[in-house]
Amino acid sequence: MKLHYLKHTLVRRNVIRDTVADIATREKIAPEEISLAKIYPRLALASIAVIEAEYVFHRTCQANRGTKIRKTQLALPSEGRD
Question: What pLDDT shows up at residue 1?
Answer without folding.
Answer: 54
